[in-house]
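Section handout 9: paired folding examples.
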Amino acid sequence: MCRHLAYVGPATPIARLLTDPPHSLFRQSWAPRRQRYGTVNADGFGIGWYAEGDPVPARYRRAGPIWGDQSFADLARVVRTGALLGAVRDATRAGADGEAAAAPFAAGAWLFSHNGAVLGWPHSLAPLTRGLPAAELLSLEARCDSALVWALVLQRLRTGDDEGRALADTVLEVAEAAPGSRLNLLLTDGGTITATAWGDTLWYLAEPGRGTVVASEPYDDDPRWQEVPDRTLLVATRTDVLLTPLKDPHDRQGVPDHEDPHHPMASARPKEPST
């Protein structure tokens, strides 16, 4: 379900990241190489990017397939950015939300995308809405699982959690309420990329000191691409990538008695991957 990509690094044309590579996000909309669920990502697309000197990103989203939008092709060719998040969508369920359901979702400096599906949606997550203010629920951009997951993440960010904690705790909460859900989340503020690998593929390409790409799958055959293990939190900047194992709330094996087995980062030992 869906493919997405985030980048932080030197200013570069959007096309170099999203349309030019041989297995780009553009091509992944109809021919993904490593997508485990679904085959065509034609239920909408979007990109958010940052302009120099402005912390609030711009967005361009559409309800149709990315290959049918010539305006996007022109935009990608001429616009340069040092940070972006792009996504192509395969809807979990049919709906009438259209462009509003296409990632990236946004608030302030943040851009967010969800690659996956919440099982039992919407009933499985109904209990989690009790913790959200009514105004937040009424302000949801779309009536889809990704929009609600974003609302849960955003609530944590606004109450002071850092990006890693906000994503990890949201994944735990949703995974416990809807076991078997696929929760690859992607978040950026223009300087840092935070992501989870939970039920689907996630890769990164790092050029230390210059830039980092985090994506559902590699956009070319560069041997420097590295796959992120399942049940992992990733935090990346231009200079480094940090991976932290996450604990599945339904897997209680190997957790010491003195630790809280319900927390996704229990027993986690952050490690610096080779780049």
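Moving on to protein 2 of 2.
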Amino acid sequence: MENLLSDKWEVKSKHSSEEVLQRWRTLCGVVKNPKRRFRFTANLSKRYEAAAMRKTNQEKLRIAVLVSKAALHFIQGVKPSDYTVPKNVQEAGFQICADELGSIVEGHDVKKLEFHGWVSGIADKIGTSVTNGLPTDNEALKCREEIYGINEFTEAESKGFLVFVWEALQDMTLMILGVCAFVSLIVGIATEGWPKGAHDGLGIVASILLVVFVTAGSDYRQSLQFNDLDKEKKKISIQVTRNGYRQKMSIYELLPGDVVHLSIGDQVPADGLFLSGFSVLIDESSLTGESEPVMVL
């Protein structure tokens, strides 16, 4: 008996191997109430489930790490070194185009900014000075405007008067009156003949047209007034350094390369790169509705 109860069958109070526990359970499998009998030994089925779950989680984690590494390698592999300066931009004396500048600023792309030599490098590529700003030569400014465009949004076309007439006709009450006018004309002409039987129907039609043109005319005038007010609102002046001198100009005269000076409460007139300053906090709520602060690059 002592030989049978060797180390091969001994169940230790702690750290017994699964092999020993399984043999012990197999040997004592015929005992009465095995759950009570084995209550002080490890539950092998639960241990197997936990091991399987750990293995599954480890595999998921391994896959996630591999996917993350692959994505990181892909991102690092897509380098901005493939950028080619368009021919017309080179001929004008610049080394970076408007689309590339836009992708750097709007996308807050630090990698591209680094590739182009940070702010000083981009200043060299667009032919400006971070201290003196742009030269005031008219021909050079016109050439820059042709390459990079002007600093204004594309305005939506104003609605014409006929559009407001059509919108006024969409009123449900006027539609019902129009149906009534049509029925009145048919019934009146059929019973009393033309033109006596058409009086009521034509009267309704005249009333509908009067309401439509008065409403459309009022909306059209309000639209014109709103456009005028909007244009006045957009007449914003800004402090800019050109040719070493600080001057005041309209935001519509700004060009890439201008050095703009901002004060507390100023509206940022264009996308740009940050040169110097302190405690600068900007949000894009007036354009995007988002009040989250930006530290444009």
